[in-house]
Specification:
mainly alpha, single chain
């Protein structure tokens, strides 16, 4: 637990103190967020607000993770099994950085062109797919000393579903889909001050808890496994907990400056990175299907966006006033702050239900 706390604390402080530096740097570089004229109240006065703020919490997460590993050197021998960075960390941090890089290219093009047309939708999806494929193969190829890989050839809910074996090729396809869907879900949610940041904090916090719980009930821990018939067959859960906790805390530090009225936006560099990390955490903890519920707000916003597109293209009619969904409520007369707080509430309820299901499975198995 000490390593997880250190990772989170350091990431929070670095993000809280580092984001103002990012604000000054991106303001000096005139990296203001281009705002589309959609007639929305939330868009008023935001033109010129610096974007690419995701760089701040990405850096803070990495520094926090390193600090957590330094803290591991002071722990008892039983807890030093993951003292060195593992393949799990390489996959999760790789997804975080490289999907963030795709978003950075998108943000850079928007700033350079001085309009909201950055990387094309096809280009963005191609970048995400390439990153997902590369790390998906790595997640299935490198086996740890306890015989586990980062990803599994099974579809998972709270753990692997034994009869849903999709094979290595199928698993890579699922991996790419999860990463792409989650990163685009967070990207669609990032439209109001603090909305995506707050929701991501809740989801990442949930995965920090799941990762640590799996570490305390880990099949690779012979002391625990001998005393219990119930353990989690995952790889490197302490790494998962540290990375998720560091990212959640970094988002909290960033939220201090990103909440309404935002002094900086995370940009696609932040939203694509966060979504990819959350997707990677879902795969690594064997909670792929459960992540639909834990990240319920992202799922709702993505599904309503798809419904709107399909409805308009097939019937010419709109189901919602505007998508993503938060803009529908803006046009219905809700204030930006009301939408953000209420959507955070929805995200929190989804996280609570997801964690409840995760824990209830443990209770049912242990009696």
């Amino acid at each position: 637990m000490r390593a997880v706390i250190v990772a989170a604390a350091v990431a929070f402080v670095v993000s809280l103190l580092g984001t103002p530096v990012a604000i000054r740097v991106f303001t000096a570089l005139k990296a203001g967020q281009p705002i589309r004229s959609l007639g929305l109240a939330s868009s008023a006065g935001k033109k010129g607000t610096p974007a690419m703020g995701g760089v701040a919490f990405i850096a803070a997460t990495l520094i926090g993770y390193v600090a957590g590993h330094v803290a591991l050197t002071t722990l008892p021998e039983r807890q030093i099994a993951q003292e060195k960075p593992t393949m799990t960390a390489l996959v999760l941090i790789g997804l975080f950085l490289f999907c963030g890089a795709v978003g950075f290219v998108d943000d850079f093009l928007k700033v350079r062109k001085r309009n909201s047309d950055g990387l094309s939708a096809k280009g963005k999806l191609l970048g995400q797919a390439l990153v997902g494929t590369g790390f998906g193969i790595a997640a299935l190829s490198v086996i740890s000393t306890n015989g586990q890989t980062v990803a599994s050839e099974h579809i998972s809910f709270i753990r692997d579903i034994s009869w849903l074996n999709v094979g290595k090729v199928g698993s890579v396809i699922v991996f790419v889909f999860v990463i792409t869907a989650m990163s685009n879900g967070v990207n669609l949610t990032d439209g109001l001050d603090g909305l995506a940041t707050g929701a991501s904090t809740l989801v990442l916090g949930a995965y920090a808890l799941i990762g640590y719980w799996q570490y305390r009930h880990w099949c690779a821990d012979e002391t625990y496994a001998r005393a219990s018939d119930y353990c989690y067959e995952v790889r490197d859960p302490l790494e998962i907990a540290m990375i998720a906790a560091a990212a959640a805390a970094a988002c909290v530090g960033f939220l201090w400056w990103n909440t309404s009225p935002a002094r900086i936006f995370m940009g696609d560099v932040g939203s694509l990175a966060l979504g990819a990390l959350i997707g990677g955490l879902a795969v690594a903890t064997r909670t792929t299907l459960l992540s639909i519920l834990i990240g319920g707000l992202f799922f709702i916003i993505t599904v309503t966006w798809v419904i709107q597109i399909v409805s308009f293209q097939t019937t010419g009619r709109r189901v919602f006033r505007m998508v993503p969904l938060h803009h529908h409520f803006e046009l219905a007369g809700w204030s930006e702050v009301n939408i953000v707080v209420r959507f955070w509430t929805v995200a929190g309820v989804c996280v609570a239900i997801g964690l409840g299901l995760f824990y209830s499975d443990f209770l049912a198995a242990t009696g």
